[in-house]
Amino acid sequence: MKKRIWKHGVAAGLMLCVATVGFAGCGAANGMEQTVDMEQADMSEADAGTVSQEGAQTLWQAQTRHYYGGILSQVIAAWQLPDFELGTGTADDDFGSIEMEKNCFAVADVDQDGREELLVRWTTTITAGEIEAVYDYNPVSGEVKREFIAYPALTYYDNGIIKADWAHNQVPPAEFWPFTLYQHDPESDTYVELGSVRAWDDGIEGWDFPEEMDVDGDGTVYEIKKAGEEYQAYEGFRYDRADFDEWFGGYTGDAKELTIEYLPMQYESFADFTPAYLKMLAEEAGKGRTDTAADLGLLILNEDHFLDAAQNLLSEKYGVTVEQPDPDFEEWTVGLKDGKELFSFEALNAGSIGYRGEKLEDVTVFGIYPGISVDGAWEKLKAYGFYAASYPEVENCLVTGEGFGNVSIWFLTEDNVVTDITVRPYCAFSG
Q1: pLDDT (tens digit, 9 = 90+) per residue, 187-220?
Q2: Confidence at residue 24, expressed as pLDDT on a 0 to 100 scale
Q3: What is the mean predicted confidence (pLDDT) over 79-100?
Q4: Alpha-carbon span 61 to 72, nearest angstrom
Q5: Within a domain: residue 83?
Q6: Same domain, residue pair 416 and 359
Q7: What is the structure's pLDDT at 122?
Q8: Same domain, 231 and 377
Q9: Which residues contact 166 (CB under 8 A, 6 or more apart)?
Q10: Range of the domain at 203
C-alpha cells in the first residue's frame, strides 16, 4: 500500500491516531464497570438539556443503542465483551462469519427499569463456555455494567425475574429440568440469586427414591435450595409439587414471560444504531447553523459515496479544481483553489477528507475550519458527538465512538488555531 506524507506531517499524524485507537480498542473494555470518557458523558447531559424531556428520552435511547453498537462491533471483530474474552469451539482460523452469525443479541428492557439492556448470547463454543450476558448502559452517567451472566437458557419475566435453566440436568434422575431464579435489584443494578430447584423421579433402577417425602404420590420430589443455603445431597429432596408451585409462584405470580427478539450476530443487525444517533445529534447541532449544506463532515453521515459528493460540491459550487498529483497513487487527489492546495481526498481505509491552510467561504467539517480556535473547534465537535480518543499521546484526535459506523477527526494547530483537519469513517476494531 502506497502512502503519501502530507505537508506538516498531517498524514503521519492521522495514521498514528487511527492505529493507536485500533490497538487500544481491543483492551478498552476491560473491567466490570467500564466508564466512557467523561467529556462524552458531559456532552450527553448537555445535549439532553437543549431538547424537551421526550426528546431527551429519545436521544438517550439512541445514545444507548449507539454504545451497544460499539460492544457488538467488538464482539464481531475481536470476540470480546466489555469484561472478558469469548471462546470458540474451533481453531481461530476456522471461525468465520457463518459461525459468528449463529450467535445472537437483543436490545430490550428486561429488568423493567425503563432503560434498554443489551443481551449477548454466545453459543459457538464448548458447552461450558456458552453464555448469555446482560449489560446495562446509563447514558447520563456514561457507565456500563454487566447485570447478569449464565448459561443461555433463560426466561425473562416482566417483574424483573430471570429463570435460568442449568446447562446439565444433574443427578438424581428426573424429567424436570433444574433452574435457578434471579431477581433484579435496582439499588445495585444487578440480578441477585433467589434460589434453585431440582427434582428426583421414582422408578429409576439403582436409585433409592425417598417415597416418604412424596406426599402427593406423583412420583416426583423436589429440592428447593434458597439463596445462601447449602445443597444437602439426597436429604434435600423433601418437597412435593405443591411446595414447588408455592415457592415458584411466590416470585413469578401473575408476571408474564417477556418476548425477546434476538437478531443474528452480524453488522447488518445493528447497522442503524450509530447512524441514527449521529444524525440525531447533527440535526440538533445544525439548528443554529446556516452553513450545513457546505459541511464536508456531514457528507460522511449522509452519503454512501462521500468522497465523490465532497469533490462534486467543492468543484461545482466553489470552483475547486480536483487533480491527481501522483499518477502512481490513484487513490489520492487534491483540491486546488487559486493555486492553493486546500483539500485532499484519500480513497483508502474507508476514505478520508483533508482541509487545511485557510477557510474557503462557508466550507466546514462538522462546523470547524482552518482558522477556528482550538476551544471553538472542541465546542462545535462535542455538539456532534465527538469526544477525546482514549489515549494521551495524540492531541486533538476525537471520535464519535469505537464501533462500526463512527467518525474520527484529527487536527493540527498553531498558536491555538486550527490549521489542518482530517476526517474519516472510523471503527477501533477494524484495519
Answers
A1: 999 999 999 999 999 988 888 899 999 999 999 9
A2: 29
A3: 79
A4: 16
A5: yes
A6: yes
A7: 96
A8: no
A9: 151, 153, 177, 178, 179, 180, 198
A10: 33-264
Burial readout 77-90 (b: 16 or more C-beta within 10 A, e: otherwise): bbbbbbbeebebee
**Residue 53 corresponds to which amino acid?**
Q
Q: Is the peptide bond before 173 cis (omega within 30 degrees of 0)?
A: no
Cell 440469586 belongs to 193
What pLDDT digit, counting tens, does each position of 379-413 carry?
Answer: 999 999 999 998 777 889 999 999 999 999 999 99
pTM beyond 0.90: no
Overall domain count for the chain: 2
> Running DSSP on this structure, what letter comes out for residue 182?
E
Strand order of the β-sheet with 397-399 is 321-323, 332-337, 340-346, 352-356, 417-426, 406-414, 397-399, 387-388
Separation between Cα atoms, residue 217 and residue 213, nearest integer Å: 9
Per-residue confidence (pLDDT) for residue 93, from 0 to 100: 56
Q: Which residue in this structure is represented by grid cell 461450558?
A: 128
Q: Widest CA span of the chain, in angstroms?
A: 99
Query: How many CB atoms are closer than 10 A to CB 147?
Result: 22
Return the C-alpha cell found at 104: 445472537
Q: 242 and 364 share a domain?
A: no
The answer to whether residue 179 scores a pLDDT higher than 80 is: yes
Question: 247 and 140: one domain?
Answer: yes
Q: Is residue 272 part of a domain?
A: no
380 and 403 share a domain? yes
Distance, CA of 335 to CA of 329 (rounded, Å): 15
Q: Output the CA torsion 295→301→303→306 (10° steps).
A: 60
Query: Of the given ranges (68-82, 88-102, 239-253), which has the lowest mean pLDDT?
Result: 88-102
Q: Which residue has the cell 445462601?
A: 228
SS3 373: strand
Are 76 and 221 in the same domain?
Answer: yes
**Does 46 have pLDDT greater than 80?**
no
pLDDT band, very low/low/confident/very high, at 90 (cuts 50, 70, 90): low
Residue 416 belongs to a domain: yes
In this structure, the answer to whether residues 332 and 233 fall within a common structural domain is: no
Does residue 370 surpass a pLDDT of 90?
yes
pLDDT of residue 206: 82
Domain assignment present for 381: yes
- Are 423 and 307 within 8 A, CB to CB? no
> Does 211 share its domain with 240?
yes
